[in-house]
Amino acid sequence: MSRVDVTAVTKHFGTSKALDDVSITFDDGGFFALLGPSGSGKTTLLRTIAGFHFPDSGSIRIGEREVQRVPVEKRDIGMMFQNYALFPNMSVADNIGFGLRVRKVGAAEERRRVAEALELVQLGHLGQRRPSQLSGGQRQRVALARAIVTRPRVLLLDEPLSALDKTLRVDMQLELRRIQREVGITTIFVTHDQEEALTLSDRIGILKDGRIVQVGPPREVYERPVDAFAASFLGEANWLPPSRVAGLELPCRSGAGSFAVRPEALSVATVPAPGKNAIQGRMSQHVFAGAMATCLVDIDGSYWKVIARDRDIPQIAPGADVWLSWSAADTIAVPTPA
Amino acid sequence: MAEITATGDRRRLIAMLSPAYLWLTVAVFLPLSAMLFFSVLTALPQDGPDWSLTLQNYRLFLTDPVYATLLWKSLQLGLTVTVICILIGYPCALVLARTIRGRARETLFLLVILPFWSNSLVRIFSWAIVLRGNGVLELGLNAVLPFDVSLNLMFTTHAVVIGLVHSYLPYVILTSYLALQAIDDDIIDAARSIGAGTLTILWRLLLPLSLPGLLAGAVLVFVPVVGSFMEPRILGGRMGTYYGTVIEDQFVAVYNWPLGAALSFILLAVVLLILTLTSPILRKARL
User: Cellular component terms, GO, for this chain's entry (chain A) (predicted)?
Assistant: First the structure.
């Protein structure tokens, strides 16, 4: 297990810049999510750490070792792919044992460690099956076992859960987290699913256009985004129109010029809540969804979203005037985008 | 109701499949049946009224060792050409499918299938010009090398093999290429990520995963080469007597169609036997 340091890495594909002076540290034993829209460079960063691409400039260290010119097969990493990429011509046990056989650990040792890995991912009885005879979730586990059985220094996951359906995905998230804790391996995880990133990781890095926008623990990034992009990309944000700023209590952060409120921080009422920030709007829609409900409120032509327990939202006819209130401390302040 | 639908479906099925079956009947089944009939005759009916049924043509294959010897020679030729085609074609397909990308791949691919577009007879005569004593190849080598070489490849077994390899190489390249380019890049990346080098990937993944394509190519080469007659005749000269040329002689020179037909069916049986015997081994290799 090792920490991974990426320092000032730049990578071009042809004339387009995929990574632009990226520096980031992945702590030893941590679970780190790289989050960003498609084309943000998150997969390129992962594949550069893996060694499928060499950076044009900058350095990558895994533990104490400089690896930016070391090819993949010599980096001692484990990687999981979006479509699992199991070897279709081999049994499950042979898939998992492949990396051990390459390392020539010996037949007895290989058998012992394959059995151990199968046990870890709870597939002890399926060693002789072929990948084509497994379900999606089982393939997933085989891919994970194959990636960690060689005890790599770092585990890289490229959107590993995106091919699973919703319930299976939540199960696998918990499973992935359990195994990662048990093995204690430094894990870097690429995803475009923000919820997945928030639940799984202990640190998040948001990328945009090949640059790191913000790095931090999930709660910090969610509550104190550094700019408008981070605020809108991770979670939803209702942006306060400049014409409505007067009279509100807003945080004074240097350079802050745009303000937003998360949908779950808002409350809806026919009167402003005392001691809180409040703005008036027009009720547009009330969407019931069981325990929770979503309201859309028209504020000067743009819709604010409110998410609350359904019983906390008063029954107000669409078109009626309503007040949206929130604690001053819940206001998100970011610099106005240039 | 269901029955009516079923008969309606069946009628439609028959209507849609009948052109294909009609074509198979006309193009394959009828000629083969005629040939099978000819092979058990003493003489062709149109040559005279005194023909009768006989197994003499088949018996001749067993009594006269020259036919079995020639068949064995043809099988060896088929094996040699197939092995050489695999040794040259598979690496070509490998480079084409896994290394070269974009425009260059299209161009190279075109060059591979270009021989298909030229007449095979023209191709063989071109080889004759290249291979003969004092031919293009010999002149070229002598111009480059400081010492004199005398190749005189024309009318040797080598010339026959060269001509056949050139004719049938594209089959191996095409089938192997299709199998190789269907392999998911992520599988190769996954193998590299857990430490596999190029040779391991080739031996444990690329080769087993593309084996069905490679074998299909090998069969496509082996079967026609065993029965080939044009290349052996033109490039082999006196050395070019093979099972295929003997069959051809029966039809065009000796005019003994019944014997030619019988020899053809023996060839067909032997090739089918070889494919049946090897298929369990091949299927095992695929797993």
Answer: ATP-binding cassette (ABC) transporter complex
Which of A44, A46, A73, A154 to mutate against chain B (most B CBs within 10 Å)?
A73
Domain A4-231 and domain A236-335, same fold? Reply is: no
* Chain A CB within 8 Å of residue B283 CB: no
> Would the CB atoms of A72 and B200 count as touching at under 8 Å?
no
pLDDT band for B237, please (50, 70, 90 cuts): confident
- Contact list in B for residue A132 (CB cut-off 8 A) is none
Q: Write out the two tokens for A46.
A: 């992962």
Structure tokens at B172: 């191996």
Q: Is B102 on the interface with A (CB under 8 A)?
A: no
More confident residue, B47 or A15: A15
Q: Which residues, including other chains, have CB under 8 Å from residue A64's CB and lie 6 or more apart?
A: A2
Edge to edge, what strands does the sheet with A277-289 contain? Answer: A267-269, A321-326, A277-289, A292-299, A302-309
Interface check for A54 against chain B (CB to CB < 8 A): the answer is: no
Q: What string of DSSP letters covers A223-270? A: HS-SSHHHHHHSS--EEPPGGG-TT------TTEEEEEE-GGG-EEES
Question: Which residue from A73, A83, A156 is facing B196, i.e. has the nearest CB?
Answer: A73
* Domain ranges across chain A: 4-231, 236-335
Mean pLDDT of A222-244: 89
Distances (CA, A) of B66 to A198, B56, B72, B255, B272: 81, 16, 10, 19, 22
Q: Given the structure tokens 């000269």, which residue do they identify?
A: B237
**A4-231: what fold?**
Rossmann fold (3.40.50)
Minimal C-alpha gap between A149 and chain B (Å): 9
Closest Cα partner for B231 from B135, B155, B286, B171? B155
Q: How does pLDDT run across B179-189, given as a tens digit for each residue? A: 999 999 999 99
Q: Which secondary structure element, helix H or strand E, spans residue B147, and what is its range?
A: none
pLDDT of residue B285: 58
Q: What is the mean pLDDT of residues B128-151?
A: 82
- What does the pLDDT read at residue A75? 92
User: Does the structure show a pLDDT above 50 at B1?
Assistant: no
Instruction: Write down the pLDDT at residue B100.
Output: 85
CATH of domain B65-286: 1.10.3720.10
The CATH number assigned to the domain with range A236-335 reads 2.40.50.100
Asked whether residue A186 carries a pLDDT value surpassing 60, the answer given is: yes
The residue that leads in pLDDT, A169 or A252, is A169
Under the banding of pLDDT at 50, 70 and 90, the label for residue A246 is confident
Task: Delimit the domains of chain B by residue range.
Answer: 65-286
Q: What's residue B143's pLDDT? A: 85
**Which of B192, B194, B200 is facing A146, going by the closest CB pair?**
B194
